[in-house]
Design goal:
4 strands, rod-shaped, two-stranded antiparallel ribbon, mainly alpha, two-stranded antiparallel sheet, single chain, 72% helix
């Protein structure tokens, strides 16, 4: 068996897969193109450790919109159904276990409400799956032979017993893998009882229709994963289906969706109660304010007396302040008046001495002039007297 070889390609070391017959030399390099390499590994998808993706993961945080919130809660369908026949490929958003660890640590201190985003994602996925189930049911109804309602009910009973047997066998395998032999044996007893019921139901179904019609394979669509189940499937086929990764993955997704719905409902109820509590507190405060205002309006005298006391205390405080200011003003005025009176008295004394000197000088001058005039009058009188006497 030969490997796919391309000319213009990237050199890669490829480890030989078991079952490939060829001579392998240690360290031998083959030129294999990237698409061919990934086709050998499985479905063609983007390399999970490309440099651009690594740099993006280093730049972003778990709260970024580019991060898959379903992956943070460990319920993304791209991870759950990986490797099944309904593999969805790589998610368009970032998946990183380190970001999930960061979210789990941060969610213990703060609620980010990522459950709502994950619930919307899973609801959209499950709704799409249910639509495919309905389409498959309509296609079966169109292609398969139409039977009466009574026969359809009997066939449905056989399908239900097949489903029960398949689930029990899957449980037996799980218990055996865990080493729980006693529980596994108890479940096998239930399987035998279900098989006996199935044989009875098949006998009833066979007797209700012709042998030719009974030999035809009657298909049924699984309500969980949309897979086709046959009426005459053996136990091994049923166990492989109900214990397979696809069916269990859909059960996990549906159970996670129900859990998210419950968590979101509880958080919304809690938030509504907090809002109601805050609203009641605001209403209580408003009622208290209204009651106080009404009490003031009903007792105007009391309110007036309170206002009067407040006004009086304010006026008294203002009066005390005014008195203290006036006292300080008076002290400053007294000090200034004393200093000014002292200066005025000194200046008055100086002015008094000078005025007395000037008055004395004036009196002296007037006395001199009086004496001069008196002497002159005496001379004139004596002259007149001499003229009269000797005349």
């Amino acid at each position: 068996m030969a490997l796919v070889v391309a000319t213009a390609c990237v050199p890669l070391k490829i480890v030989p897969m078991p079952g490939i017959l060829h001579k392998w030399k240690q360290g031998t390099a083959f030129n294999v193109s990237m698409p061919a390499y990934f086709s050998l590994q499985g479905s063609v998808r983007k390399a999970p450790h490309s440099p651009s993706r690594d740099t993006t993961r280093q730049r972003i945080k778990f709260s970024d919109d580019r991060v898959c919130k379903s992956h943070l809660l460990n319920c993304c369908p791209h991870d759950v159904l990986s490797g099944t026949r309904m593999d969805l490929g790589e998610c368009l958003k970032v998946h990183d276990l380190a970001l999930r660890a960061d979210y789990e640590i941060a969610s213990k201190e703060q609620d980010f409400f990522f459950e709502l985003d994950a619930m919307d994602h899973l609801q959209s996925f499950i709704a799409d799956c249910d639509r495919r189930t309905e389409v498959a049911k309509k296609r079966l109804a169109e292609t398969q032979e139409e039977i009466s309602a009574e026969v359809a009910a009997k066939a449905e009973r056989v399908h239900e017993l097949n489903e029960e047997i398949g689930k029990l066998l899957a449980k037996v395998e799980q218990l055996g893998a865990e080493g729980n032999v006693e529980e596994s044996q108890k479940v096998m007893d239930e399987v035998e009882k279900a098989r006996a019921k199935k044989r009875e139901a098949e006998e009833v179904y066979r007797n209700s229709m012709p042998a030719s019609s009974f030999q035809q394979q009657k298909l049924r669509v699984c309500e969980v994963c949309s897979a086709y189940l046959g009426l005459h499937d053996n136990d091994r086929r049923l166990a492989d289906h109900f214990g397979g990764k696809l069916h269990l993955g859909f059960i996990e997704i549906r159970e996670k969706l129900e859990e998210l719905k419950r968590v979101v409902a509880e958080k919304q109820e809690k938030r509504n109660q907090e809002r109601l509590k805050r609203r009641e507190e605001r209403e209580r405060e408003e009622r208290e304010k209204l009651r106080r205002s009404r009490s003031h309006s009903k007792n105007p005298k009391r309110s007036r007396s309170r206002e009067h006391r407040r006004h009086r205390s304010r006026s008294m405080s203002r009066e005390r302040k005014r008195r203290t200011r006036s006292k300080s003003r008076e002290k400053r005025h007294r000090h200034r008046s004393r200093s000014s009176s002292r200066s005025r008295s000194r200046s008055h004394q100086r002015s008094g001495h000078s005025s007395r000197d000037r008055s004395r000088e004036r009196s002296r001058r007037s006395l001199r002039s009086a004496r001069g005039s008196l002497a002159h009058s005496e001379k004139s009188v004596s002259g007149v007297w001499n003229q009269l006497r000797f005349g």
